[in-house]
Automatic annotation (TrEMBL):
Chain ranges of the Ribosomal protein eL8/eL30/eS12/Gadd45 domain: 18-108
Lineage per the UniProt record: Archaea, Methanobacteriati, Thermoplasmatota, Thermoplasmata, Thermoplasmatales
Any single GO CC term annotated in Swiss-Prot or TrEMBL for this entry: cytoplasm
Gene3D superfamilies (alphabetical): 3.30.1330.30
Gene of this entry: rpl7ae
GO BP: any one term: tRNA 5'-leader removal
Pfam families: Ribosomal_L7Ae
Family stated for the protein in its record: Belongs to the eukaryotic ribosomal protein eL8 family.
Species for this entry: Cuniculiplasma divulgatum
Protein name: Large ribosomal subunit protein eL8
UniProt keywords, alphabetically: Cytoplasm, Ribonucleoprotein, Ribosomal protein, RNA-binding, rRNA-binding, tRNA processing
């Protein structure tokens, strides 16, 4: 199983920069859940505003079902290239996925990202 089994669309570099900026901002002023188990719980509880998944997760089974769960629960999701890049924005070495549950003062950036992601995910 490779990443193409769970990566549903290619994220442009400009969008990825915005996503990582939002993740870092929300880590500082909002609320974030880190790690697959916490992410799944936040989606199921209806707390997620945006889910971010790394493309280099190994084994891919760790995050395989997250995009499907997001689609079922109407939660926007996006991808970034690496776990280490995602982890560095939330003060840990690496993480397969994160869920933003409170955007703090970043509402406008979230709207931009979800709008761009919606266009990619058609």
């Amino acid at each position: 199983m490779d990443k193409t089994t769970y990566v549903k669309f290619e994220t442009p570099e400009s969008l990825e920069k915005k996503i990582l900026e939002l993740v870092e901002n929300c880590y500082r002023s909002g609320k974030i859940k880190k790690g697959t188990n916490e992410v799944i719980k936040s989606i199921e509880r209806g707390e997620s505003k945006l889910v971010v998944i790394a493309e280099d997760v190994n084994p891919p089974e760790v995050v395989y079902f997250i995009p499907k769960l997001c689609e079922e629960r109407k939660v926007p999701f996006a991808y970034v290239k690496t776990r280490s890049e995602l982890g560095s924005k939330v003060a840990i070495g690496s993480t397969a996925s994160i869920s933003i549950t409170d955007v703090g003062k970043n509402e406008e950036l979230l709207k931009q990202i979800t709008s761009e992601v919606a266009n990619l995910n058609k």
